Amino acid sequence: KVKLDPSKKPAEITITEASTKVQLGIYEQKGDTLKMCLADSDDKIRPKAFDEVPAGNGRNYFSVLNRDKK
């Protein structure tokens, strides 16, 4: 399950896997590019910025996805 909250700055994403595993993150969508920064699922601390030093166990996962132009 994916929950988006674009009203927050930066926009928030919460991914729930199965019934207990939760990943907290932020995202930014501009044009055909989607940036996401997700905290390790063991952490309960949402990243506050894309260039932030990770809290908790020190692992954030950063992705940039680009839509193919046809």
Intertermini distance: 30 Å
Mean pLDDT: 87
Report the count of strand segments: 5
Alpha-carbon Rg, integer: 12 Å
In DSSP terms (H or I, runs of 4 or more residues), the helix count works out at 0
| Largest β sheet strand count, sense and barrel closure | 5 strands, antiparallel
Structural class estimated from helices and strands: mainly beta
Task: Please give a structural write-up.
With 70 residues, this protein is an all-beta fold. It is built from no helices and 5 strands. It starts with a strand and ends with a strand. The model has no long low-confidence stretch (mean pLDDT 87).
Keywords for this entry:
70 residues, mainly beta, five-stranded antiparallel sheet, 5 strands, globular
Précis, in short:
It is built from no helices and five strands. The chain has strands spanning 2-5, 11-17, 21-30, 33-39, 60-66. Strands 1-2-3-4-5 form a five-stranded antiparallel β-sheet, with no helix packed on it.
List the helices and strands and how they pair.
Layout (H helix, E strand, L loop, with lengths): L1 E4 L5 E7 L3 E10 L2 E7 L20 E7 L4
Antiparallel strand pairs: 1-2, 2-3, 3-4, 4-5
